[in-house]
Amino acid sequence: xxxxxxxxxxxxxxxxxxxxxxxxxxxxxxxxxxxxxxxxxxxxxxxxxxxxxxxxxxxxxxxxxxxxxxxxxxxxxxxxxxxxxxxxxxxxxxxxxxxxxxxxxxxxxxxxxxxxxxxxxxxxxxxxxxxxxxxxxxxxxxxxxxx
Length: 147
Known about the structure:
The protein has one domain: CBS-domain (Roll). The protein is 48% helix and 16% strand. It has six helices and five strands. It has helices at residues 3-10, 23-33, 53-63, 72-75, 89-99, 118-142; strands at residues 16-17, 37-40, 49-52, 103-108, 111-117.
């Protein structure tokens, strides 16, 4: 399975904010949508960076309440690990684990195409395991001697 397949199963929606969006507004978006990161893009196409809960918490820890008046552009990570739609999901997971990131933007020739989270990958794997268990149960019910 590749990133394109995973995005199709979960929906390709990716939440973007502009560089000038306030951190207070970004927190509202993250909380309201139940997501852990947003892409930072002034045109919703070209990826300028990524801003995660972790980035915001670190800023709040270091700067206190004054972090709330900063912008997405101030706190975003500009050097972003990305993948493309044809990247194997196993490779996506390896990148996340190797670099300690939980969100990987999917970028193609036309720009930002989606975002894959660690949660998406875990849910995919869990579903595959559940399907495998169900298949094995059916096989055992049909032919108990196969065990």
